[in-house]
Design a protein that fits this description.
about 55% helix, alpha/beta, 6-stranded parallel beta sheet, single chain, Rossmann fold, 3-stranded mixed beta sheet
């Protein structure tokens, strides 16, 4: 298929690469043109000067940018995707953003007979680089089924959650759960060290039982070594948690622990950990 990819960050760059390797004709756009040039040099394909130009002949236009404002700019702006998208094409937004912006973009796209899916990701940079992402999707069943075989190029699992906005809401659930798990793991490892236990033996035992989690399996060793210069950055997590907390204000959900953990991440930022991995929650416990 002819596809476009807008946004070649740590996630988008390898994802667009998987689309090219799957045999699709790919045109890319990135605000920093050097990144787009590097992608073309590595994978082939072509690059566009604006999101509008990238979308012009594409059957599916994928976007993966930073936040709500970025989504509005690259899709709805004067040089945005929607002004170049042809009738019958589909826009797939992989950005972690609000359900509000997803619904707004969907409404604008529908006026031009362009399909839309909100499809935030889980799996981080490693998942993108290995083509093993989990994708939570909001949108129409027929549009989802049309795009699914293409997204499979970089997906481990891809699930239609419900109507437009549902993908973003599911991603909020994902981030809320991760925040609580990482805080619990941080306190557990901190307690083990203060109690004079060997963390490796403890994790070896409890990771085979009910305490097991992806965070435990993949992060405990770097946490006890105070290594955080990788992974999903604290500043990105706080952006995601703010989206969830704002949504909770609208729907009445009580996110007491999420609000508390967000304040702990603020402490990590004060320690200089803005770009540290989210597992750095343990750093605030170990600082004294």
């Amino acid at each position: 298929m002819k596809v476009a990819f807008v946004g070649l960050g740590v996630m988008g760059y390898p994802m667009a690469g998987y689309l090219k390797k799957a045999g699709h004709e790919v045109i890319v756009f990135n605000r920093t043109s050097a990144k787009a040039d590097a992608w073309v040099a590595e994978y082939g394909g072509s690059r566009a000067g604006t999101p509008r130009d990238a979308a012009r002949d594409a059957e599916i236009i994928f976007c993966c940018v930073g936040n709500d404002d970025d989504v509005r700019a690259v899709i709805l702006g004067d040089d945005g995707v929607l002004h170049g998208a042809k009738e019958g094409s589909v826009i797939v937004d992989h950005t972690t953003a609000s359900a509000v912006v997803a619904r707004d973009v969907h409404a604008a796209a529908a006026e031009k007979n362009v399909g839309f899916l909100d499809a935030p990701l889980s799996g981080g940079q490693a998942g993108a680089e290995n083509g093993q992402l989990t994708i939570m999707v909001g949108g129409d069943e027929a549009v989802f089924q049309r795009v699914l075989p293409v997204m499979d190029a970089y997906a481990k699992a891809c699930t239609l959650i419900g109507p437009v906005g549902s993908g973003q809401l599911a991603k909020m659930v994902n981030q809320v759960c991760i925040a609580g798990i990482v805080q619990g793991l941080s306190e557990g490892l901190h307690f083990a060290r203060r109690a004079g236990l060997d963390p490796a033996r403890v994790i070896g035992a409890i990771s085979k039982g009910a305490a097991q989690s992806w965070q435990m399996e993949n992060r405990w060793e770097t946490m006890v070594r105070n290594e955080f210069d990788f992974g999903f950055a604290v500043e990105w997590m706080r952006k995601d948690l703010k989206i969830a907390l704002d949504e909770a204000e609208r729907n009445g959900a009580r996110l007491d622990l999420t609000r508390l953990v967000d304040s702990y991440y603020a402490e990590v930022q004060e320690l200089g950990g803005n770009r540290w991995d989210t597992s750095s929650l343990i750093a605030r416990l170990e600082k004294s």
